[in-house]
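Recall that a protein's primary structure is simply its ordered list of amino acids. Everything else, from secondary elements to tertiary packing, is in principle encoded there. The following example makes that idea concrete.
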Amino acid sequence: MIRVSVFYPNQAGATFDWAYYENTHLPLVRGRLGAALRNFSVDVGLGGGGPGDPAPFTAIAHLEFESVPAFQAAFGPHATEIVADIANYSSVAPTNQVSEIRPVA
């Protein structure tokens, strides 16, 4: 299994429209990726490492797929549409990471 994480930096002056993100963008992503998307969750940044520290990220989306090829096959045909929609809710560009999920005993 792999996880694609999308990190939205918490930058001074940045905007993030949670209502649009939750009600429009996330359903768009889920709909386009279909059955290849095994699990989907979002982290809402509340704070940093120390008391009163701001969260380094406003949001982090986690999308799980069986493999990198499964992700690429699902995302590729819709990449332009999904990426273009980011401007409708965020004034900052996200950073992405693809990771292998390794269970811990």
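The two ends are 16 Å apart (CA to CA). The chain has one domain: 2-100.
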